[in-house]
Amino acid sequence: MKLGLISDVHGNLPALEAALAALDEQGVEAVLCCGDVVGYGPWPDECVARVRARCELCLQGNHDAAVVGEIELARFNGTAAAAARWTRAQLSDASLEFLKGCPPQTAHRDMFVTHGSPRDPLWEYVTDRRTAYLSFRHVEQRLCWFGHSHVPTVFVERDNDVDGGGVPGCQTLALEPDARYLLNPGSVGQPRDGDWRLAFAVYERTGSEETVTFHRLEYDVERAAPAVREANLPQSLYNRLLLGR
Ligand code: ZN
What we know:
This protein has eight helices and twelve strands.
C-alpha cells in the first residue's frame, strides 16, 4: 500500500498542483485529503475540482463547513470570516454539494482520518502531548491522520505513554509495529511552521514494514501570493504564504 496524504489546501492552486504532481511521481495508489480544501486562498473552485478528481477520500474541515453554511461565521476571526464569505461566492453548485457531502472524520481502509482531532473533528488542534493522549483515547485504529494545525506532526503512543511533536523539513520515519500513531502531513496551501514550502506525506506499507515520509517542496509562491492581493483577500493572507506563518 502506498498512499499520499494532503491537508489544508485552502484554495492555493499552484501548491495543490505541485503536491499532486509530486505524489504522481511517487507512484501513490491513492490520495487522502484531511480537509480545508477552501478558505483563505484565491482558487477555491479549481482546488475542489482537483481534489474531487484525484482524492479517494476528502474530509470536510472547519473552513469548508463555514463556506457551505454548516457552521456560523461568527466562530471565525475577521480574516477567516471575510475569506469564507468571498469563497462562498466563488464556488459552483457542484463544488458546494461536494463539500457538503464530505465527512469531518471517518474510518478509512484500516486507519482513522479526521480534520482536527478525533474528539472534536472541526475545531480541536492536536499540537501538544496532552491533547494527543486524549485523542488516542478516541481512536480504535493504530494509525490516525489529521490536519487543521498546518504543522507536520507525529505523536506516538507506546505503553500508554505519548511522545512527539512537530516534524521539521523532509524526513522518513519507520513505524514501530507495537506503537500507535497520530500523524499530520502538514498544509499544502498555507504552512504555519515558519517554512513556506508546501507539505505532504507518503505512507508506505510492504509486508510488516511501514514508513511515513514527510515532504517539503517549493512551489510557485510568486504566482500564489499576488493572486491573494488581486482577489482583494486580506493582506495578512499574502504575508502568510511568503513567510509560512
Ligand atoms: Zn486549515
